[in-house]
Amino acid sequence: MEIRLIKTFQTIVKLGNFQRAAEALQYSQPTITIQIKKLEEELGVKLFERGKTITLTTAGRLFHERADSLLREYDDLNVALSDFIQGDAGLVRFGASEPSASNRVPEILASFTRQKTKVQAKVTIGTTRELADMLLEDRIDLALCNQPEPHLELEFYPLLKETFKLIVPDDHPLARRDDIRLKDLADEKFLFTPGSCAFRIRIEEMITKHIGKLRQSSIEVAGITALKYYVQSKLGIALAPVVAITPPIPGVVVKDVADLLEGPSLGVLTRRNKSSMSRISLELVEEIKRFFS
What we know:
Elements: H1 3-15, H2 18-25, H3 29-43, E1 48-49, E2 55-56, H4 58-86, E3 89-96, H5 100-103, H6 105-115, E4 118-125, H7 128-136, E5 142-146, E6 154-161, E7 164-169, E8 191-192, H8 198-210, E9 219-220, H9 227-232, E10 238-241, E11 252-255, E12 265-271, H10 279-292
Parallel strand pairs: 3-4, 3-5, 8-9
Antiparallel strand pairs: 1-2, 5-12, 6-12, 7-10, 7-11
């Protein structure tokens, strides 16, 4: 059923006859007559009783009642599609790994949605590997995460290198030292994130190089943003990216370690084929780049 036929029908009802409707729609009267005939044939019912005046049939009255809401929905759909094409509305599926999901993404989205008030966002939190898989399976549109293993269908745009700091309880001997090196941590109990975490991998590289095997067993904590609370409870010490331990909390001291290496790269991960991305997703990628510039 063509929308223009419904609009013609509603115009006839509103203006009272075919001639006025033809003038309002800038059609000839025969064109109006043909359109109504086609509509009646499609619906399989007669809509008008024709005589000196036209009146609606029972079916015509029912169709008239429903047609207004149908046209409103059609107009709303056109507006929504136009907004989507222009990048002013729609849903963006944003993936993020910790600690950026907690410490960076809220500010990025707050800025973006202030400019794009009709945009809806769905945030998914996962590891870099999980987010890469989600992109390949079209479950998210983009991700803010660490650099994954190379993949022909994915593209990574680096934004920065994470930096590490040491966090210790405020009554720990290291809390009062100014010059700390990795070898000074050999006798400590470490708090680590899981083995697949990019931060854990980098920290273990540094420990292996400068300390070797740790003398105390470590504790594994699934969430990197939770590490500082375990240090606060004196369960151990931790090397963590600065963004994960900001702001500081009572009972925890943040210290520099002179020979720490740079952390993993943080960046935007997308599918290499950008033609499959909506304008809104592409604009969010640019907003993320501006945030880190």
